[in-house]
Structures are given as structure tokens and as C-alpha cells.
Write a structure and sequence with these properties.
36% strand; four-stranded antiparallel β-sheet; Immunoglobulin-like; flat; 1 helix; mainly beta; 2% helix
Length: 338
């Protein structure tokens, strides 16, 4: 087993140098060890390749970055600025599907022991324009995971917006007092985020305010002191996501263990606004089963909707103590139809 693994957290198609022909876009990733601990303030070497046609297709562009992770294990780099004998301007983004391949040596050398491949879900806007004029291929997608003002690209007249709210955080485990005794009780799972879908007729350069819901914070497990349990807290509520007037509601946080003699989970986001909406019937599930069924988009390993935060667990004061988890943030996927 490799000592380290590479976890993609975002592929930000944020183009720079807009005054000229932009030939770079941003990329971020987090590096952790096999125990899930962040690899902090370490120099790593990353080889980036753009593959044409499939995940096993030929590389049409390759570059290398030697970079240091920050205190959160995060690396941030600009694809197009690495060491390379290729030119990213030579890629015809209209000709095919493209995939991003990353190979990493966590020791900073050239032993690329960690490999990952993922498809570009959107074509970098201005890079496409430099090779393909003003037209856009049908079903081009762009993914939004941060709040922003989003501008409709040139010549796009119709889009499909799929919107997810953030999920709630897990509640902390605690003890509920009953008949003068203390009974340990798990914290509740957070509620999953809601879903909204709508097709919109748009104009070039039209602007939309996009708000992406923040994940619900994890609660806190109780601590044991002088024969009693103290301090457990509820999980936080996930934020609502908005795209213009469309809304995907956030799920509520799981309740703390001391709230009731049984575990109480958060509620799914149901206050959604859009032509098609969906939510989970079981609030701590991420399966959209209350849903009218259209073709769906998926983002990486994100299945159906935002994943609720798990509730905390305590077995005894001296054994298993599993803290609760935060929820998952919202996102939007925009598909260009025309």
C-alpha cells in the first residue's frame, strides 16, 4: 500500500489573464497519509497531463510542478505554468472530451506513486474560445462549488441548472438523564441537502448571483467528569444554495445525545424552489427518493445529494469515543444546451 494518497477537493476552472489569451487555470488538492492525517508543509512533485478522448487516451499536454503543501495539506497551482515542453494553447477543446491525469511523488522526487484521472466536467471558457470561436458544444458542463457572480458565456442561450443544498453536521454523543441514571446516547446524523433543477433561457453575459451552502458544523461529544457527562452539542445546519431565484435547501443538524432518550437525526432540506425538486425521504440518507426523475449529473464521488455528517458515538468514558462529522457543502452544475 502506498504511504500517501491524493484527495481531489476541487478543480477550479477559474481562468486568469483575461486581458490576453488566457492559457492557465487553477487546481487545488489535499494530500493526506494512509491514516487520513494531513501532509503539512511538505514539498511534493506533481506531474499534470491532459488526456484526449478517454481516461487512457494520449497526453496532449504535460507539465511538472514542485510545490509545498500548506498547514492544511493543500496545494494550489496553475495548470499552464508548470515545467513543460508542450503548449496548452495548442489544445482544441472543441475536438473531444478531455481528462486530467495527476501523478504525485509525496517525497518531492520523480517516483510518481500516486495516480488519479478525472474528466473535465467543463471546458475552460476562454481556452475554448481561442480554438473554437464563439460556439459551445452541447452538454458542456461547469461545476460551481463557491459563491460567486456567474456570467453566461458568449453565444450560450439555454442552460440547465442543477443545485444542491449543504447537509447538516452530526450531533455530539451525550447522556440522557432518566430515572436518576445517565444513559449514553449517540448523536444524530445531520439531514441531507435538498435538490433543485430548472432549464433557463439566457443571454450572453447575463449575470446570476450564486450562493453555495456551507456545510453544517459538527457538534461536540460530551466529556466525563465527576461521575457525569457534560458539554455535548447539536450539529450545525447546512446552508441553502441559490442560483438566481432557484433554491436548494440545506439539511438541519443532528441533535445531541442528551436531547432525548433516543437518537434524533436532522431533517432533509425540503424547502426547495425550482421546476424539479427533490429530497431524501430518510433525512439522514443522501438518496433522492422523493424526486420526479430527470437525467441527473454527478460530481466526483458525490452520490445524488450532499452527504450528511455522522453523529458522534461514546461507548464508555474509557473506551470508544468517535467525534461527530461536519456535513458536506452544496454545489451547482450548469449544462449548456444551446
Amino acid at each position: 500500500m502506498n504511504r500517501y494518497f491524493f484527495l481531489f477537493i476541487s478543480l477550479l476552472l477559474t481562468l486568469t489573464g483575461m486581458a490576453q489569451s488566457p492559457e492557465k487555470f487553477s487546481y487545488q488538492a489535499v494530500i493526506r497519509d494512509t491514516e487520513g492525517k494531513l501532509l503539512q508543509n511538505k514539498t511534493v512533485r506533481i506531474r499534470i497531463s491532459v488526456l484526449e478522448g478517454s481516461a487512457a487516451g494520449p497526453a496532449v499536454y504535460t507539465e511538472i510542478h514542485t510545490i509545498t503543501t500548506n498547514s492544511n495539506g493543500l496545494v494550489t497551482l496553475a495548470i499552464g505554468e508548470g515545467e513543460s515542453t508542450d503548449t496548452i494553447a495548442g489544445i482544441d477543446w472543441s475536438a473531444s472530451a478531455y481528462f486530467l491525469k495527476t501523478e504525485t511523488d509525496p517525497t518531492g522526487g520523480t517516483n510518481y506513486s500516486i495516480t488519479g484521472v478525472s474528466q473535465f466536467l467543463s471546458v475552460p471558457y476562454a481556452l475554448f474560445a481561442t480554438t473554437a470561436g464563439t460556439g459551445w458544444p452541447v452538454s458542456t458542463k461547469t461545476v460551481i462549488t463557491t459563491s460567486q457572480t456567474w456570467t453566461v458565456p458568449p453565444s450560450v442561450t439555454k442552460i440547465k441548472v442543477e443545485l444542491w443544498g449543504a447537509s447538516g453536521g452530526g450531533g455530539g454523543a451525550g447522556a440522557y438523564s432518566y430515572s436518576y441514571s445517565y444513559n449514553l446516547n449517540n448523536g444524530g446524523y445531520g439531514g441531507s441537502g435538498g435538490f433543485s433543477l430548472q432549464e433557463l433561457t439566457v443571454e450572453s453575459n447575463q449575470e446570476f448571483t450564486v450562493i453555495i451552502g456551507e456545510p453544517g458544523a459538527a457538534g461536540t461529544n460530551a466529556t466525563y467528569s465527576y461521575g457525569s457527562w457534560y458539554g455535548d452539542t447539536d450539529g450545525g445546519t447546512g446552508g441553502d444554495s441559490w442560483f438566481g431565484e432557484l433554491k436548494a435547501a440545506g439539511g438541519t443538524g443532528g441533535k445531541k445525545g442528551s436531547f432525548a432518550p433516543y437518537t434524533i437525526h436532522g431533517n432533509a432540506g425540503t424547502d426547495n424552489i425550482g421546476e424539479i425538486t427533490g429530497h431524501s425521504n430518510e433525512p439522514y440518507s443522501n438518496i433522492l427518493d422523493v424526486f420526479q426523475g430527470l437525467e441527473r449529473s454527478y460530481i466526483n464521488d458525490r452520490i445524488l445529494t450532499s452527504q450528511p455528517g455522522k453523529g458522534g458515538t461514546i461507548v464508555t468514558a474509557y473506551s470508544i469515543n468517535i467525534p461527530p462529522a461536519e456535513g458536506e457543502g452544496g454545489c451547482a452544475i450548469i449544462t449548456f444546451f444551446e
